[in-house]
What we know:
The complex is a heterodimer. Chain A is of the alpha/beta class. Chain A has helices spanning about 50-60, 80-85, 100-115, 120-125, 140-155, 170-185, 200-205, 220-225, 270-280, 290-309; strands at about 5, 10, 15-20, 25-35, 40-45, 65-70, 85-90, 160-165, 190-195, 205-210, 215-220, 230-235, 250-255, 260-265, 280-285. Chain A folds into 2 domains: about 5-225, 3-Layer(aba) Sandwich (Rossmann fold), CATH 3.40.50.300; about 230-285, ACT domain (Alpha-Beta Plaits). Residues about 305-309 of chain A have low confidence and may be disordered. Chain B starts with 11 loop residues before the first helix and ends in a 5-residue tail after the last helix. By secondary structure, chain B is mainly alpha-helical. Helices cover about 75% and strands about 0% of the residues of chain B. Chain B has 21 helices and no strands.
Amino acid sequence: MKILVGGVMVNAIEVRGLQKRFGPVRALNGLDLTVRSGEVHAFLGPNGAGKTTTLRILLGLLRPDGGEARLLGGDPWRDATALHRRLAYVPGDVTLWPNLSGGEIIDLLGRLHGGFDPQRRAALCERFALDPAKKARAYSKGNRQKVALVAALASDAELLLLDEPTSGLDPIMEATFRACIEEERRVGRTILLSSHILAEAEALSDRVSIIRDGRCVETGTLAELRHLTRTAIDAELVAPVSLDGVPGVHDLDVVGLRLRCQVDNDELTGVLRRLAEAGVRTMTCQPPTLEDLFLRHYSAERDVAGASR
Amino acid sequence: MTGAGGGGVAGAGILARLALRRDRIMLPAWVYVITALVAGTAWTFRKAYTAAARAQLQVTGSQNPAIRFLYGKPYASSVGGLTAWRYGMWASILASLVAIFIVVRHTRADEEAGRLELIAAGVVGRYAPLTVALAVAGTGSAALAVLITAALAVLGLPVPGAALLALAIAAATLAFTCMAALAAQLASGARAARGIAAGALGGAYLLRAIGDSAGARGPGWLSWLSPLGWVEFTRPFAGNRWWVLALPLALAAVSGGAAYAVAARRDYGAGLLPGRPGRPQAGRLLHGPFGLAWRLQRGALAGWVTAVVFSCAAAGAAAKGVGSLLNSPQLRHVFTSLGGQTAITNAYLAAVMSMAGLAAGAYGVTAVIRLRAEETGQLAELELATATGRIRWALSHIAVGAAGSAVLLAVAGLASGLGYGLRAGGLGTEVPRLLGAALAQWPAALAVAAAAIVLFGALPRAAVAGGWTVLAAVVLVAFFGPLFRFPGWLLDISPFTHVPKLPGAPVHATPFLWLALAAVLLAVGGLAALRHRDIG
């Protein structure tokens, strides 16, 4: 699904230098975010990083103090209702009207949205094993989330904004959710998926933005991000070798002939040459998981927190 | 009870402090308001009535079945006796409503919202939340008893009578406190629990009303089945029957004990009464923001309509021969010289209509405040993420409030017209006349609700407290403004001051146009502010 403004294809979401304060707290501090049309974009960050604030600004619920946000070619504050016909949203903490049944809420949200497919609704209820006759007060967190997910997925929205959509789902439902997202991607819908579950982002997303303290610290495809990072090496050598002082080597751990370390990808060739010279019996090399990327981005913060204790 | 085995009240101290922290404004405010109502009534009877007028009032009150339906029987013509008659039962009703709200709030509502789960996982006994809810509501009743006794003693009333009246109110409140606790254990939802307890209160009122209004051969014994009847039967300032206090205390003990027994056996989150399943699909009415607002608010409106029907029908029926009820002989003289018996009746009916107007205004405020609840409950977020704009969203609830207050007033006019017309004759003229008089209150009621819209738009955090404050100010001006001779500008602040006293007074279009204009301007201002602020 292409978004055309004056014949030019634009990004689904374009955020530049976004600022938002709540009293003395700076929730967003110059956030940049670009989501291309038709991609699944993972929006990663720990609790309190500013993910939900960003989504609420994109929904026109909050007004930014500075910076610029464009959504589907429009202004999220000014054009809120017109834009909302083209998107669907699943909040991170789904609250529902307790005296309405799940089925009633799904239908209501579909009607409020302005277009939805009853057949898809029925199929999705079945896939997510949701009992639509139950009153919302009787639903667990996971079931409340399913209600919002079914309503969003049954809509004809071209953009899905999902705030930690699997935080209450069990592993089977999580798999169902992934399958659904995969189908949506094939149809060409754009999806912004906020999460702190890295495996989910790794499995689903085309591109990733990592945010911290209201600022985007890293963005790109997983391949691009890995390029910037380290490879983990675990090797059993024929003869001892000293890697002390070799550039790009981190967390070196040598026990006898067993060597484990992290190597900057740029310096990999030199390190491998040194190991080859000593002779290698077995070796595993692992590309960094998103976990590693993530931990690296937050370790600085944790060090500061640790030092102040 | 000990903390071992999950059955005790461990942690109750900490929870009690939490509960008092949450209720630190509401609970004292209600205690003061109810005390002020009782003491203000006693003050009025002392200052504005001669002994002869009070004697006349007692005679009328005893003879008119509709007045007995509303207030019960007056057993003495002393200041204290009339105060106990006029506000003993009604103070018990108000205090019981507050107690029901508090008990359910700290038990079933917290449980339903999942907050109690967090607390129950701590070192907290199974009975602790129930005990804390009873203790907080009981503290309120005790404070009320002390304050009413003190206030009436200061006004120079006999201390034993004052203490008995205060204790009768507190004991009845305690009985409903414990019944609310039981309802909160039985029902699986907070709304249902409040409904059961409030239904018991309404049932008690009706039993007593039928019993009291019955003639000599009627079922007068019905009043003895009602905890609200027991408040009357203590006869404060008129024989002081202390032993009657044992009845509400026994009821409190039985229902409180039952609540503990259920709490000991039931599962967390479950009740003994099953919840009903909902519809698997939305009906045709549940379409768009207006359909949703109607669905969310219709239950409350039905409750208001029921209350207005009963009270206005009874008040209308009481209008016949109301002459001697109306304040002082001087005032009576003014009215009779102006227009004879009709003028007094009209003045009384006009007072009933302004009550209905206040009720409609109060309903309008609650309907508007619902917007803030939807916002803080993050339900607005869900709705506003759809193609519904914030103005349409706000208008949906405002429309329910505006239309609902019109419905309430229409019902008030019809019910009082029927009540009065059936007893006094002239049904064909009285019903349309009182319907018109009731609907004349609509612009003023809308103006009060519109003030809540401004607060919601411009000062959302203060919307709930501010809305109730506006309403309380309007009620105070209406009840006590003329009596205590408030300055003119203060009276003019209340929109109800500008409504002609119908039926009876001449009607001009001007005040209605100004009130409607004020309501529209306030609403537009509030919506404009809503456009520019953050949601949530």
